[in-house]
Amino acid sequence: MLTKFTYSTAAYGQAVIEPTREGRWRVLLGGQDLGHFRSPRSAFIAFTTGSVLAHTRCPDTSRIGLPMSLCGWTRIKVSLDPTPPHPPRERLISNHHYSLR
């Protein structure tokens, strides 16, 4: 299990630092992807210093009031296990009516 970090901002929605299946850490603000980083710490530093991709409504994430430590963020345990395969599809077998002669 890995940890996803979230923080709710008044103006831009959820700030998120979450693991990816590729072993990187994605930074999101209000659902918009602002970049991928090698560790949660590097993602956090980039987020709080404004060193991420520009958000459409927020050009500088260093000014949105993010806590200066991950201790102020909500931690959520997440699993990146592959989803179980879908159950086998049921095959529709047509019901032909044969007349008996």
How would you describe what is shown here?
By secondary structure, the protein is mainly beta. The protein is built from 1 helix and 5 strands, in the order ββββαβ. Strands 4-3-2-1-5 form a 5-stranded antiparallel beta sheet. β1 and β2 (13-19) form a beta hairpin.
Q: SS-based structural class?
A: mainly beta
Q: How is the main sheet built?
A: 5 strands, antiparallel
Enumerate how many helices there are, as a single number: 1
Number of strands: 5
Q: Which residue ranges are poorly predicted, with pLDDT under 50 across at least 5 consecutive positions?
A: 90-101
Based on Cα principal axes, name the global outline.
globular
Mean pLDDT equals 85
Major sheet: arrangement of strands: 4-3-2-1-5
Helix content: under 10%
End-to-end separation in angstroms reads 66 Å
Strand content: 25-35%
Q: N-to-C SSE series?
A: EEEEHE
Output the radius of gyration. 22 Å
Task: List key phrases describing it.
101 residues, mainly beta, five-stranded antiparallel sheet, 1 helix, globular
Record the SSE blueprint.
Elements (H helix, E strand, L loop, with lengths): L1 E8 L3 E7 L5 E5 L2 E6 L2 H10 L24 E5 L23
Antiparallel strand pairs: 1-2, 1-5, 2-3, 3-4
Summarize the structure.
This protein is mainly β and 101 residues long. 10% of the residues lie in helices and 31% in strands.
